[in-house]
Write a structure and sequence with these properties.
It comes from Micromonospora coerulea. With 295 residues, the chain is mainly alpha-helical. Among the domains are: 42 residues, no CATH class; 86 residues, no CATH class. Helix content is 68%, strand content 0%. It has 18 helices and no strands. Helix 15 packs parallel to helix 17. It is elongated and about 70 Å long. The protein starts with 7 loop residues before the first helix and ends in a 20-residue tail after the last helix. The mean pLDDT is 91.
Length: 295
């Protein structure tokens, strides 16, 4: 005999795995009647997965009618997942009207996803003004994708200090703008805030390339940092330490072809690689004037 879980959450999941969906729905319906929006969300997800769209929609509408907190947003998410984008946008606007947490930022995300970028930008700034500072991170990405780096930096700066927001990406944006002194200050603030991995960026932005190179070598001495060879290639090429690149390449060729690929692509991201490149050599990697990403 199969041991059936007793806990309602575990039991519902187990019943679904056994193909006993109706029984699982019965359990979740009981939870949803006295629970919160997460219980309704779990139930409606299961209904949607099994093609019972009208029932799922009716549950969310009932939850909204009953005044269940966050029900508007839950319904909007369901509509978006179902591809009913315009209705989902209307749902998030309703969530904004009733004051659901982070509703305006979620509305902005959906607007951006559907190509309504100007509207998304407006909603992001409204969210930031209303105290949702972390929305500045997504807004900065939106601006950056459009090549508006000044606005991206302004947006990201508005998010600094919000819970879970790293400081170092502001430095990257400022470096791309050529505002090196401000970038250095941003990286230093990041290091002071405990973002220790940013030290190499700080040293590189300060022009202390030898120190940055040593930090990268220290990282490479530990497992799990293969992609840091990209930075090593760039740093060595920026310093015209070509013999060291050749030596690294010979070592990697015998046992780490992925690392070799990173090393060479990093070297090609330095302008010095192309200045010293023979007439018949080719490189399709974009040149950057700042420390490249490890990816």
């Amino acid at each position: 005999m199969i041991d059936e879980p007793i806990d309602p959450d575990d039991r519902a999941e187990w019943l679904v795995e056994q193909g006993r969906v109706d029984e699982a729905i019965t359990i979740l319906e009981a939870r949803a009647r006295g629970g919160d929006w997460l219980d309704v969300d779990r139930l409606t997800d299961l209904l949607m997965e099994n093609g019972r769209v009208e029932e799922a929609e009716a549950l969310w509408r009932a939850a909204i009618e009953a005044g269940l907190p966050r029900a508007y947003g839950g319904f909007a998410d369901m509509l978006a997942d179902a591809g009913r984008t315009d209705e989902a946008i209307g749902g998030w606007r309703a969530a904004v009207e009733v004051g659901e947490p982070r509703a305006r930022a979620r509305l902005a995300v959906l607007l951006a996803r559907t190509g309504r970028v100007d509207e998304a930008i407006t909603e992001y700034w409204k969210a930031i003004a209303a105290g949702e500072a972390a929305a500045g991170v997504r807004l900065a990405k939106l601006y950056a994708r459009a090549g508006q780096l000044d606005e991206a930096a302004r947006a990201y700066r508005s998010a600094i200090g919000a819970e879970g927001v790293s400081r170092w990406p502001l430095g990257v944006l400022l470096e791309k703008l050529g505002r090196v002194d401000e970038a250095v200050a941003a990286y230093r603030a990041a290091v002071d805030a405990g973002e220790g991995h940013v030290r190499v960026r700080l040293l590189a932005a300060q022009g202390r390339l030898e120190g940055a190179t040593q930090l990268v070598r220290d990282m490479l001495a530990e497992p799990g940092h293969n992609s840091s060879y990209r930075r090593l290639g760039w740093l060595l090429t920026e310093q015209r330490r070509f013999e060291e690149i050749e030596a690294e390449a010979r070592l990697l060729k015998d046992g780490n072809l992925v690392g070799l690929s990173y090393l060479l692509s990093g070297a090609q991201q330095s302008a010095n690689f192309h200045e010293d490149c023979p007439a018949d050599c080719k490189g399709s990697v974009r040149v950057v004037r700042y420390l490249p990403e490890c990816r």
